[in-house]
Amino acid sequence: MIGTLYSIWTTLATVLFVLTAYSTSSGLLFAATAENYHLLAHQTLGGEGFWDYLAIDTQARRLYISRWSHVMVVNADNYQVVGDIPGIQGVHGIAIAPEFGRGFITEDEANQITIFDLRTLKKIATAKTGNSPDGMIYDPSSKRVFVFSGDGKVTAVNAASGEVAGSARLGGSPEFATSDGRGHIYNNIEDRNEVVQIDSITLQVLNRWSLAPGESPSAMAIDALHRRLFIGCRNRKLIVMNSDTGKVVTTIPIGEGVDANRFDPGTKLVFSSNGEGTLTVAHEDSADVYSVIANVRTKRGARTMELDPETHRVYLVTAQLGSQPAQPHTPPPMMPGTFELLVYGQRSDRAGLSNQ
Asked: What is the topology classification, in CATH, of domain 49-301?
C-alpha cells in the first residue's frame, strides 16, 4: 500500500512538474494574470475634431492622435498634451520614422501626406498620393512609407527624401496595413473580404487571399516571428492567417465595431479595440492556438488604439457621443470638451496616473 501511494505521488509530482514547465515556456502562466488588464488612467484632453488612428514614438515617448483638422501630441507617460500639428485637411493615418526624425500624416481632403519634424513638430514637406488617403504605415525594411487611399491605390514614399517612389492599384477599398520586415506589405481589402500581399520594392501584388469566414476587415497586426497576421473583421471575428501562405489558421471571437488590432511580442497578447466599448485580449498559446482571456470594458467609441511594446500599455481614445445617425458611415456627434485618453495596463503596472 505504501509502495502504491509512493508511486502515485511520484507520478503526480512528475505531471505537475511537466505542466508547470509547459505553462511557463508557452506563456500560459502570464496569460492567467493578463485577465487583470485594467484602466490605469483616464485623461480629459478636450479639443475639437473627431478621431481616427493613433501612433506612438517610443523613443521620444510621444503619442500622436489624429483629430481631423490637426494632430494632438501627448506625453506617453504622464498623458499631458505637449504639442499640436495644426492645419491638416482631414487626417486619418500617422506614421513615425524615428531613424530619419520624421513623421507622416495623411490628408484626406488634400490627397497628400504631410511630412513633419519629430523634434519640432514643424511641417517639412508634402507628397501627393491617391484620392482620400487613409491608413498608412512605415516599413523600416524598405525605409518607405506606404499610403493607402480610398481610390484603391497604394503610394510608396521614400522616408528619407519625402519623394514618391511609386504607386499601384490594389483593386477594391484598402483599409489598414502591416509589414513583415522581409519585403512584404499586407493590406485589408474591405469590400472584397481579402488580404493582398505586396512586394515592398516593386509594389506588385504577389497574392490575394480570402478572409472567409471574416467579413468587412478593418484592422490588422502581425506576429512577424511566427508569421501570423491578425485581421479584425466587422462580423465580430479576428482572423489569424499564415502570412506566407494565406491559410486561415483559426478565428478569435471579438466585440462589435473593431477598428484596430495590435500584437505585443513581449507578452504574446493580441488586442482588438471594439467601438462597442470593449478591448478583447487573446493569448498566443502557440502559432496556431489562441485563448481569449479577457473582454475588458472600455467606453463606447473607443475603436482605435496604440500599443507601447516597452510598457505593454494600451492607449485608446473616445468622447461622450450622441445618438447614432441613421445615415450609414456617419459618426455620432461628439459632446464638446469630452474627448479623453484611456490607458490600460497590467495589474502590476502602478505607473498610471488617474486624472480628471
From this structure: Methylamine Dehydrogenase; Chain H (2.130.10)
Provide the whole-model pTM: 0.89
Residue 130 cell numbers, joined: 491617391
SS3 assignment for 46-66: CCCCCCCCEEEECCCCEEEEE
Query: How far does Cα 251 stand from its chain's mean position?
Result: 18
% of the chain surpassing 70 pLDDT: 88
Cα separation, 146 vs 94, in Å, equals 11
Lowest-confidence pick of 11-15, 120-124, 191-195: 11-15
Distance CA 305, CA 341 (A): 10
Instruction: Name the nearest CA neighbour of 105 among 140, 54, 139, 60.
Output: 54
Angle at 231 between CA 51 and CA 312, to 5 degrees: 65
Phi, psi of 226, rounded to the nearest 5 degrees: -95, 5
pLDDT band with cut points at 50, 70 and 90 for residue 23: very low
Q: Report the run of H or E that residue 282 belongs to, with start and end.
A: strand 278-286
Q: Under the phi-then-psi rule, with left for phi > 0, alpha for psi from -120 to 50, and beta for the rest, what region is 39?
A: beta
205 has a pLDDT exceeding 80: yes
For residue 24, the model assigns a pLDDT of: 39
What gap in Å lies between CA 59 and CA 202, rounded to an integer? 31
- Identify which has the larger pLDDT, 13 or 279: 279
- CB contact at 8 A, 277 and 303: no
Which of 26, 56, 28 is CA-nearest to residue 315? 56
Report CA-CA distances (Å) from 186 to 101, 182, 197, 261.
Answer: 25, 12, 5, 14
